[in-house]
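Batch manifest line 508
LIGAND: flavin-adenine dinucleotide
JOB: complex structure
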Amino acid sequence: MGKKIAIVGGGASCIAFIESFINECNKESTDNLHFMVFEKLPEIGPGNAYQSDAKSNLLNTKAGYITALKDRPGDFFKWLDENQQKWKPEYPGLEIHEDTYAPRPLFGMYMQDTFNAVVNKAREADIKVDVIQDEVVNLKENYEAETVIVSTISGADYEVDKSVIACGTSLLSPDALINHKQIYHSPYPVDNITNNIPKDADIAVIGARLSAIDAVIGMIENGHKGKITLYSRSGLFPSVRGVQGRYKNQYLALDFINRNYPDINITDLSDLFFKEMERYRAQNPDNMEEELVFPPPPITDFEKFLSYEIDMAQHKRGWQAVLYDTNSLLADVWGMLPDGEKDWFMNEMLASAMSMRISIPIENAIKMREYVRSGQLQFVTGNSEIAKEGDQLFITTDDGQRVETGAVIYATGSPRDANMCDSQLLRNLLQDGLVRQHPFGGIDVCEQYHNIVDNSGNFSNTIYAVGEITNGKFLFTSAMDIIVRHAHKCATVLHKHITHGIKRDLVA
Ligand SMILES: Cc1cc2nc3c(=O)[nH]c(=O)nc-3n(C[C@H](O)[C@H](O)[C@H](O)COP(=O)(O)OP(=O)(O)OC[C@H]3O[C@@H](n4cnc5c(N)ncnc54)[C@H](O)[C@@H]3O)c2cc1C
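JOB STATUS: finished
ARTIFACT:
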């Protein structure tokens, strides 16, 4: 009998998942396999991150290092080289090298082609892949038949054997915000804010991470003339990427930790980081020596902060290479830490760690500094509160200052409380108790198998989740290499469960 697998969301996780699943089938085949990919947007591949809305949105990973496929490092760069006729007409004059931070829409084009390539590869393995352009609004388990009913917004129901939730980042629901036509719950698509906010309006951007930078650069490069203020609760801003290449950790590496630190804690991790830095410095004598302050202090002078970061970014910043290489072990090490330390880290240190860990290309930092110097951009540290009076919007900050603003853009990412997200599917699943929130964000899944966990703590044997929706469980999922690795793990496990069945004791 055939098996149907529904994938909710046709972004990076979906592509990586199907590709890995086909590879598993090539090792041990499964008859009559049928993937049904549900995607609410018109295109499969770009997902939320790599849409064609603004050429000014840059990848934060160098072109030579980013790929959607596990066994094909450098695949994006190869695609750029082999498909110049597809992208050059839209980007005349753009030269891309392995170290370029390419426009994200280009990666979206690559993702579309990669999806098509994966569908062809599936066909060769006798696996059917159908795309259903519809929004999934609910999943229900049929416990007796061990199937799942997938319900869509258009009113259709599909019965499948397994379902994978791969719906990416969810945003703050507009319902959680003041109702005003100049309040935007997300900067994306960037052409929505550039087309709808009057060019001379003063704008408040809530948040100061990557999506806030996309909003500022997108607005100004599209002719915005009004002032823009970034409001950052933590007072932190991403570091700027140096010129170092990749580095393979020896001490901050999973096998080393498993062998030597079975009960690792955050102090051990910090010691290992400094040991790793010594090794990095020995191998890279031209590394820039920097005094690392952790947690970094809140920014008091934005221009000075940017100038320092831009100067440092002309050099090798070994600490960034060491931190980058921890992508491959983050989820495992996070799972090993005592619960109390996880709580402390999430509540006290996360913003600081992210500001150092998620760095931005120097091009963007230089643009931001130009805007500050011209007086168009400013940065405010501390809590801020939005209020509506009649048609007017006001923003009040910790120091009691209250200013009128013409528009407010929330660039705060996924809300930690999944009930406040804009996904009807997630809200329904939470309401029905089929999934439970992870206290650190997103939904709870089994660490080993990616099965979802219901509100009584039971693992599902038919529904799995992968990608950004699992960010609380795994601490950090917002990078392609992590997404691809998790999708591969989920595909391997799901293939095993389909071919050999899944016993409760396997997952509990
Ligand atoms: C703005 C942004 C920029 C990023 N830039 C980088 C970068 O430069 N480098 C890097 O390594 N990583 C980056 N990331 C992190 C990560 O690589 C991407 O987020 C990645 O695309 C996540 O994959 P995903 O499959 O989990 O989600 P997505 O790729 O977003 O795919 C989810 C898909 O599900 C669809 N969907 C959602 N709900 C439903 C539903 N109910 N029914 C049907 N369809 C649904 C969405 O429309 C979307 O297409 C970025 C993330 C964001 C948000």
